[in-house]
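chain below, 140 aa
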Amino acid sequence: MEPIRHPLALHDLPSFITPPGETDRMMVVTAIFLLVIVISVGVIYFNLHSLPERMSHRTNQAQAGVVAVLCLLALFTHNHMFWIIAILLAFIRIPDFETPIHSISDSLKRLAPPLAPTVAEAVGAQPATSPAASVEVREG
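prediction:
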C-alpha cells in the first residue's frame, strides 16, 4: 500500500522528504554529523591551546608554570598574545642556575669545620638552677 500523496506533489520526490508522522532520517544524520564535527573541532582547539604547556613539560623547563598560566589566560580571555608569549617561552631554554648553586652550598657545608655553639645553644645547654646561673655564658 502506497502512502497518499498530495495532488500537487511531484511523482519522483527526493528520498530525504518523509511522509507525515515518520522520522526524518536526513535531520537525524545531519544532527549526528554536526555533533561529531563540533566535538572534533573542540578537541583540536583544546589540543592546540595546550601545545606550549605540553612542550614545556616534556623538557622539564623551569618556566613550565608560567607557560601553563599563560595558556590558561589565553584560553579564558581569548587574547592570543598570551598564547604567543607562552609558545615563545616554551621554545626558549632558560639555563638552570639553581642546581649548581645548591651543589656548591652543600659542598661547602660538608667541608666547613663545625661552628662554635651560639649564645642560645650555650644558654640552653647549661642547667638553669637560678636566674643568675642562666645569665652567665662562657665563650671559649
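The radius of gyration is 37 Å. The chain has a mean pLDDT of 80.
thats it, cya
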